[in-house]
Amino acid sequence: MNMFNFILGASLQPGDFTGFTFFIGSVSMLAATVFFLVQHGQVDKKFKDSMLVAALITGIAAVHYYYMRDQWAAGLGSPTELRYIDWILTVPLMVVEFALLTGVGMRKLFWASVVMLVTGYFGESGVTGMLDAQVWGAIAGLAYFWMAYEVGCLTIFGGPSGEVGNALASGEGKIPAAGRMLQWFVLVGWSIYPLGYMLGTDGWYSGMLAGLPLNMDIVYNVGDAINKIGFGMAVWSAAK
Ligand SMILES: *C/C=C(C)/C=C/C=C(C)/C=C/C1=C(C)CCCC1(C)C
After folding, report:
1. Structural domain includes residue 4
2. Does the N-terminal or the C-terminal CB of the chain have fewer CB atoms within 10 Å?
3. pLDDT, tens digit, 9 for 90 and up, residues 43-70
């Protein structure tokens, strides 16, 4: 083991496309963290907490990506535990970020995100030994749909809305435009994840897409870049 192996752990093999998306993830999460921290000093006071939480989210992800890349490069396969540890920290933090940004309380949403991730983990890891990945995935999916309804994603199409969405629509929110922004992220940005989960679970469309250079981890890694870095950038641009 040379010095670089000691510092960096296992090396990625040339041509390991999935592995390099982990690598790009760790580098870009780190860069985004530095950027959000520096910008924290530049934005208006009412956005400071949001910028700090954006930096925390990408910072936590940067550390997890560093280790996920290592696990993948070592040939240990999809890093399910590290992935869900990252999410169980960063997704509820995103809900906190939504609440900070809009000034609307989101306690139920916070707990729904925890339910979604715990059931998703049970499905993806199989640790419980009961119910199969489809059933756990469906439960996680219900929690996701409820959240999308609760924050008013459906109002984008003129549909109904839950408590949080109503509060956002009434203009009670701190920054009116922020409500719409987070609704789009929950509706479109977050919907990337169930697609990744289905790709990693036999019996949905995993067979249909066999042969394409696409797998669950690539989809999750793209989703994280959009939702962690992209959302932070959206907050930053709103703050500018
Ligand atoms: C930074 C990480 C984020 C924003 C992660 C979000 C994750 C989800 C929205 C996951 C959702 C899932 C379903 C809706 C069903 C299948 C299981 C999950 C956990 C992948």
Report:
1. no
2. N
3. 999 899 999 999 999 999 999 999 999 9
Any idea which residue has 């752990």 for tokens?
Answer: 9
Q: Convert 213-235 to b/e letters by CB count within 10 Å (16 or more is b).
A: ebbbbbbbbebbbbbbbebbbbb
Residue nearest to atom 18 of ligand 1 (CA): 120
pLDDT in tens, 141-160: 999 999 999 999 999 999 99
pLDDT tens-digit readout, 95-126? 999 999 888 889 999 999 999 999 999 999 99
CA 120 centroid distance within chain: 13
Does residue 164 sit within a domain?
A: yes
Query: Residues 6 or more apart from 4 whose CB is under 8 A from it?
Result: 11
Ligand 1 pocket test: pick from 139, 193, 216, 219 the residue with the most ligand atoms within 8 Å of its Cβ. Answer: 193
Mean pLDDT of the chain: 91
The answer to whether residue 113 is domain-embedded is yes
| Ligand 1 midpoint to CA 3 (Å) | 37
120 Cβ closer than 6 Å to some ligand 1 atom:
yes
Whole-model pTM: value is 0.93
CATH of the domain at 94: 1.20.1070.10
